[in-house]
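Morning. Coffee machine broken again, so started the prediction first thing and wrote up yesterday's gels while waiting. Chain of 215 residues, entered below exactly as on the submission form.
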Amino acid sequence: MRNKFDEQLETLNVEMIKMGSLCEEAITTAVSALSETGESIIEKAASIEFEIDEQERKIETLCMKLILQQQPVAHDLRVISSALKMISDMERIGDQALDIAEITKFVTGVSNNGKSDLQSMAKETSKMVTDSIDSFVRSDLALAQKVISYDDIIDKWFNKIKQELIGLIAEDNTQGEYYIDLMMVAKYLERIGDHATNIAEWVEYSITGVHQSQN
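Came back before lunch.
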């Protein structure tokens, strides 16, 4: 019975990795639209977001089967319940990546001002998402806590970009809408960082039995 349960837990890990990879691809695709034109990028982002939704349903079904058929207790139950919480955050990451892609159709070909820091922020945010999923699969508490602390760095990126864009608006208010759109991209990236932090906090709970909100 335990061997069967361990096999199903391994399947859960594989599916979580797949969903995490889709989230990473969604972020990369969305931000690439800052420098590339055409509806194909937005269509690709929408397709990835659909795959993320499908993966969420697949993992949700797997988790419910594990709970109902295997009746896990203690640590195993925490792992499964944490996975259910995590996929909700991952689904929101997909939504927000698509939001970014849809905004970029208004900013491509306009100017490169304010975009370079967004590219850097996106890479940092994407790494947070990847590390949060890795920490779950590897039961790596230290990595999960590193992701949680890294949220402060993403917040600093957001504040830096916001101040930069405010300065650019002051210099040329004819491009105000363009810079506000870029600020929205930064805000969505900051929210994705928050979701990665949430994921890492659930990993911490799955390992320790204590959630950040209980501290």
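The mean pLDDT is 90. Going to sketch it on the whiteboard this afternoon.
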